[in-house]
Amino acid sequence: MNKNKGIVFLVGAGPGDPKLITIKGMQCITDADVIIYDRLVNPTLLTHAKPDAELIYAGKSPARHALTQDEINLVLVQKAQEGKSVVRLKGGDPFVFGRGGEEVEVLTEHGISYEIVPGITSAIAAPMYAGIPITHRNFASSFAVITGHEADIKDSSRISWDKIAKGADTLVFLMGMRNLPEIVEELTKHGRDKNEAIALIHWGTTPEQKTLVGTLSDIVEKAMAEKFESPAVIAVGEVVTLREKLAWFEKKPLFGKRVIVTRATRQASALADKISALGGEAWEFPTIEIAPPLSFEQMDEAINHIEKYQWIIFTSVNGVQSFFDRLKFLRKDVRDLKGIKLCAIGPRTQAELEQFGLIVDCIPKEYRAEAIVEDLSDKIASGERVLLPRAETARELLPQSLSEKGVVVDEVSAYRATQGKGNVQLVTELLRSKRAHVVTFTSSSTVTNFVNMLNADNLGELLHDVVVASIGPITSQTARECGIHVDVEAKEYTIDGLVAALLEYFGMVHAV
User: Fold this and answer.
1) I need a surface site. Which of 227, 373, 418, 427 has the fewest CB within 10 A?
2) Which of 124, 97, 103, 111 minimizes the C-alpha distance to 20?
């Protein structure tokens, strides 16, 4: 039995789309003490690591290596011998040209425990996202995955070109862009039809995905003209001709768009999931963290005398969750709300209340404070008492306007919106390298915290050519006050409204 407590997990990160990692792979990332990751790993996966996890870049490109393979092996052994849980995070699958077998041999020699967590290989996923099935009953009954890295090593290559050229219906080459001319030459020399279809898929499954189709006779010239670069998957075979009919990913309305989502972590997924479903890639950069108020004294006082209120106005999902958590804590429930009318800003807040079996009496036409005052003006009589559980630093317009109409408003702190803990370095690099296309703001706090967290003198330059999308006019005003241009503003001040505004904006752009 291994006396070391350390363990190494060789985890396949998938082909690029962060949602294509396995459930077990994600669990390994969230539990890891150390993560040693490669160049083709989507950096968003690293945001799921523990705050104190050690992240070690071991990327390799055709031009340079951050760490040699021997150095990577040494780090794996050292970290595991320190008793740590180590994740070796690899693009695609660890055992498909990922040198996972070599690393496992080293771990075995040192008596270190390990597990292999398979990943989705780009050999299948990249063609799939380009609309190319590697098998098809009418076109291909077999396929082969081949390294393209050895094509130029004539004497020592382990590729049997005379057998592989016609040994499978579909051929998929990984790491082969640099050797594309040699690959084409070997295939045609050993019997592959020069008019056969071939596709090059660059950064498959990501917003940078680009597909170039040709034949074995013209693909090299086309690739040179397009300045096609690695990383790319090369697919050869009749199945490539199906792309025109089966292409799906590149037709999605937000394809090619990487969107920074600045909402709080527990809320971000709703927007991120919608973006992903529409073909975009969402990067969660939480600029807000929802925390309990410094004191529940006000809230508890109101709940203990809840019968004195005629209305409760909820302005957010967070307010609803905090209120009912506290209601339960004080050994009360919805029966204590009998006779009290409820107002909710927006359908999400309404839906949250309905989770407790409650019917909302008033939902403003517009989801902001001004509209609440207008909608409630003929519903709340002067002298009636209203409970307003909301964020500590919320705007004063709502309670002030209601008070001016003779309404007694008890404003209590339900939660605090503190500055989030998003990865500033990753987002700054994303903006600097122009790989972010959209930044979304869902409240004024997301704007101000975004500015404070980046703390960049060149914020205007970082956001140049980046589409800034705001959930509504108040948020837009805050953005402009911070020197940030606003390109898209939701007509309906909800997440669905924000997504609809983005779709309309990019639809118009594409139509031009």
Assistant:
1) 227
2) 124
Token couple for 79: 């970290």
Domain match, 102 and 173 both: no
d(CA 36, CA 46) in angstroms, rounded, equals: 10
Q: Is 60 a catalytic residue?
A: yes
- Please give the residue range of the domain that contains residue 239: 124-247
Q: Based on the fold, state whether residues 306 and 451 are members of the same structural domain.
A: no
* Structural domain contains residue 324: yes
Q: Active-site residue 308, yes or no?
A: no
* Paired tokens of 312: 């409760």
Same domain (yes/no): 210, 139:
yes
**Residue 253 domain flag:** no
CA distance 208 to 101: 30
- 453 and 306 within one domain: no
pLDDT tens sequence for the chain (512 residues): 345 589 999 999 999 999 999 999 999 999 999 999 998 999 999 989 998 999 999 976 665 667 899 999 999 999 999 999 999 999 999 999 989 999 999 999 999 999 999 999 999 999 999 999 999 999 999 999 999 987 555 556 788 999 999 999 999 999 999 999 999 999 999 999 999 999 999 999 999 999 999 999 999 999 999 999 999 999 999 999 999 999 999 999 999 999 999 987 777 688 999 999 999 999 999 999 989 999 999 999 999 999 999 999 998 899 999 999 999 999 999 999 999 999 998 888 999 999 999 999 998 877 666 677 777 878 888 899 999 999 887 778 888 888 988 999 999 999 998 999 888 999 999 999 999 999 999 999 999 999 999 999 999 999 999 999 999 999 999 999 999 999 999 998 889 999 999 999 998 544 33
The structure tokens listed for 208 are 């940078």
In a domain, 2, yes or no: no
Catalytic residue, candidates 128, 175, 177, 453: 175
What are the two backbone dihedrals, phi and then psi, of residue 208, each rounded to the nearest 5 degrees?
Answer: -85, 5
Q: Are residues 113 and 128 in the same domain?
A: no
Claim to verify: residue 238 and residue 267 sit in the same structural domain: no
Q: Which of the residues 19, 24, 26, 60 is marked catalytic? A: 60
Residue 175 a catalytic site member: yes
CB-count exposure of residue 221 (10 Å: 0-12, 13-18, 19+): exposed
DSSP 8-state secondary structure symbol assigned to residue 64: -
- Of the residues 17, 38, 93, 169, which is catalytic? 38
Nearest by Cα to 139 from 196, 100, 182, 194: 196
How many Å apart are CA 451 and CA 75, to the nearest integer? Answer: 37
CATH of the domain at 215: 3.30.950.10
The domain spanning residue 46 has which CATH number? 3.40.1010.10
Assess if residue 498 is contained within a domain. yes
Indicate the SS3 state at residue 506: helix
